[in-house]
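Lab notebook, bench 4. We co-purified these components, and the gel suggests they stay together. Before we commit to crystallization screens, I want a quick structural picture of the whole thing.
Request: model the full complex, all chains together.
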Amino acid sequence: MNAWKEYQEKNKDRFLQELLELLKIPSVSARSEHRNDMVKCAEAVRDHLLAAGATSATLYPTEGHPVVYGERITDPSKPTVLVYGHYDVQPADPLELWNSGPFEPVIKDGKIFARGACDDKGQFFMHVKALEMMVKTDSLPTNIKFLIEGEEEVGSPNLATFVKANKSLLAADVILISDTAMISMDIPSLDIGVRGLSYIEVEVTGPNRDLHSGVYGGAVGNPITILAKMIASLHDENNRVTVPGFYDDVVVVSAGERKLMAEAPFDEQEYKKDLGVKALWGEKGYTTNERTGIRPTLELNGIWGGYTGEGAKTVLPSKAFAKISCRLVPNQNSEKITKLLIDHLHSIAPESVTLKAELHHGGEPYMTPIDSDGYRAAAKAIETTFGKTPIPVRGGGSIPICSLFEQELGVKIVFMGFGLDSDNLHSPNEKYELFNYYKGIETIPYFHQNFAGNGKA
Amino acid sequence: MNAWKEYQEKNKDRFLQELLELLKIPSVSARSEHRNDMVKCAEAVRDHLLAAGATSATLYPTEGHPVVYGERITDPSKPTVLVYGHYDVQPADPLELWNSGPFEPVIKDGKIFARGACDDKGQFFMHVKALEMMVKTDSLPTNIKFLIEGEEEVGSPNLATFVKANKSLLAADVILISDTAMISMDIPSLDIGVRGLSYIEVEVTGPNRDLHSGVYGGAVGNPITILAKMIASLHDENNRVTVPGFYDDVVVVSAGERKLMAEAPFDEQEYKKDLGVKALWGEKGYTTNERTGIRPTLELNGIWGGYTGEGAKTVLPSKAFAKISCRLVPNQNSEKITKLLIDHLHSIAPESVTLKAELHHGGEPYMTPIDSDGYRAAAKAIETTFGKTPIPVRGGGSIPICSLFEQELGVKIVFMGFGLDSDNLHSPNEKYELFNYYKGIETIPYFHQNFAGNGKA
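Here is the predicted assembly.
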């Protein structure tokens, strides 16, 4: 459809400028000091939706940050696509490792550098611009709904309540999400699953106050040493997680599917070179792509305790802390794994310390069938704009709300992401390539076209 | 000598006020932002020495913070006492655990609360006030020299150079140090040894940048997990240090001495209650007092890596860090232990990470003989003012410069400390009891009197 291409070409500079403005808002959901920025960002999303052609768009308050909902219902008899995305971003620290301000977006070498450039402002905003393209060229083939939340990066603690209370508002025939990555722009792929999550925080308390490590050292349990011993014991010599029952519910992937996965292009030398490591690490008996795709993991996301400043302080600290998260695969259950992990930590904590372990957030794993209408509409759209059939792959990340969506709304989810693994999500110097941004905007209308033809209508 | 008692009684409020003023100066040697406070504190010490009766007192610049030297030579034929102390203090963090500002001293329940109240401003200042008492009552029985340095809490990196270059200036018959503790005011004791120290910092680097823990987790070595495994392996199941060669040079303490040590009053239930722990921890086969006195230890003083802020961040960090220190006993050598520890850490670091391990500072263990003139002069002074013979005990802490003093100046060191283990050294709410402060000032002149009688003169 040349009208789309023509409209995009004529407006591409503005499409970019609008995204850059959105990236300037520091919408860090984890930090309470950004509460006002969250509202400001939600309002900007609402205004963009209305400007793009949504007939209504509203902020819905929640116990946490607001949800933005907008829609354009062209004809109730046509199929409805619900676009889900999130306007919140991860914290930007460590700030000193950024080459430019995380909320001062810059374009360099054809890439947009900013926190949220890819995850997920750059990606959900493609859908807003695709809506504009279709509306302005009078060619929107579906009904379209937008649900853009502000708490994805903290586990969507309030979205389930919103979804359950607004099932008819959100009723749709498919849910479309751009919050994942492709293998590369030369090797397009579509994620067919996201992993679940169980994210906890642990506090180990030894003595009731910081002590002089000379006067008390050697005689009193040091919470850092003890926390380290506990963490060390969570993986065995084959790097398998030792929490009893951890693997019990894991669906065994067939030799056939593993063989298919192994055919996806992957260059281990290139992977190691990109990360600057001499050797990889992971569960024995599985390849790198299997380790990040079909296997559950347990990772340390943070640790702290004692003196962490300049120079030396001879202290035996009172407390040590860690943030630990597990990625889960079908059919693991987040609540069950969280309980197993916390119970196990309590069981291995020695008597010389007390342990507090609490859930930050969780989410269930999700798989999408490749023979669904939605998946086929996405694959065909990619074929049209990339000239290649996308490879179905398992994604390593998590989108906590997916399984609830399917349960409450009764429809399948399609992950049509245009990011790259090298986009530095959750890291300093997050980026999104201009090519990918524009390619996404170009591809999305074809999804709607295909789904309107192939869907229930 | 009633003139001393009378002088002290008349001036006790001023003695306290002067100390409080000194405690207001945040002389934190580890932090470069306190460089000017260090000079200010050194100048205050110099002025106090001159006011107390030192005939000269000077700041000597070093590569780091200045050394204060002062003296009063009454008669070259009399024995000379060199008083060593330090005007620098430990960092005050974690600030939020202080009940009052660390550099805003307050008196509560007969205790002075402030960083440095006991370690070591409150203790070395007793010697300045004792000098004043003896000079003003015209009864100083010895020559007296003061060496008050500003880098003890960072391992005295520049004091050795100063001592070696000023051997005749510092020439003395005994070195007297108040920087240790007594069992209690009811059970006076004298330390007969301090432990040595080897303090290192470790940096473990995995991938060259922070990664998304979903996209890369399970496939890339996590530096926190790997650092935890390394730390965990440093103690075996009997809590013995596993660094090869660590115990090779440790002097085996005789059954007789261990029996004597076991006779010193110690209430394990009280000790646990004070620290708020259900169980103690330490090397199998040794008592608590042995673990902190005659055995070497390895303690974690700090750890950090990844996301340590509010909420959750799903990051697989690039780096993790730890501060580790060993306390050493006779005849361990700090340099040798540091090398053994760093070599061992390199040997156990897996290929998926790179390790950097560097020395912060070290110091040798030191023992003082109980049949020396100095020890006997101190014991007799304690008998006079406490009415009890002090128990000789092994201290757990370190005063890095001790072994160098003996080597360069050829004299013995006497540790006459008036602190308590419960003084929260290096911790929030450091304190020094008024009773101990005044008791120290009262006792010190008797040391000089005894040493003048018993010493070489």
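The longest strand of chain A covers residues 196-205. Worth comparing against the SEC data before the next meeting. Chain A has a mean pLDDT of 95.
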